[in-house]
Please model this.
Amino acid sequence: MRYTRALPLASALLLAAAAPVLIVEALARYFPHRLPGDGRILAAQRLLDREIYRHDPALGHCLRAPFEKKIGQGDLLEVRHDVFAGAFGESCGYRVEGAAQEQPGIDIAVLGDSHVYGMEVDAGSTWVSLLGRFSGLRVANLGVRMYGSTQSVELYRRYGKALRPRLVLLMLCPTDPFDDVVFDDWLGGEGVAPILASDEMLYRVCRTLRLESSPAVCRAAAGFGKLGFLPHMMLGRTVAFLYGGFPAGSRLEERGHSLLRRDVLSLRGERLAVILNED
Model:
């Protein structure tokens, strides 16, 4: 009898505990713009990450194009990618504001990572778009999340040069040396587990979590992050906390800086400007 009476109370407590989780999950799926602070960015990343990238053997990953998607309700986040000039079919692309592809002869091509791409805002609200709007110049957004300088420069070399920009604007971040070493190791393939050899983004997560030697455990952790917004946020916070760190003065840090210098020097011959982002 006591257990029968306690059952409704236990059910009510369970429902009360689950209700906030379900509300947050619903907000993250249908109203990501309503989440505060970084929650909005993480919600957008979770909803888009599975769709906006494609594997590329030379770049690890790149933006899938052509691609167009709106997420959320009310305040919509709109994402659109177009293929580079001269490319046909599904290919690596870049973020665009309108439906029309940028034709060769643009004014500025901006290279970088998520700080350039602008994951949490519409294409028309990125600082790259605002630069073009306020200056009256034609500016192309070639930013890709989780890119270091090596991938940014390679993307430009393989695809962006077709836009024939008058100026190349390269944004460098404190995490670029780490990104460049990780990508260089993945591209080299030595010691990379077969399960990670075909997934550069997963390898990057494993390397950040120090689990590259335990790929099955890392894959399970990545799978946990796909269960919902809150697991994604927990994994994202952990990765962000560990991301981009090398012991000061270590060989890995020196190697990362060497790769970065190589990438910048490889753009000799272009009219180049560099932005140093300290965030």
In short: The beta strands are 53-56, 60-65, 67-71, 77-83, 91-95, 108-112, 139-143, 167-172, 272-276. The two ends are 61 Å apart (CA to CA). The mean pLDDT is 85. The chain is about 45% helix and 15% strand.
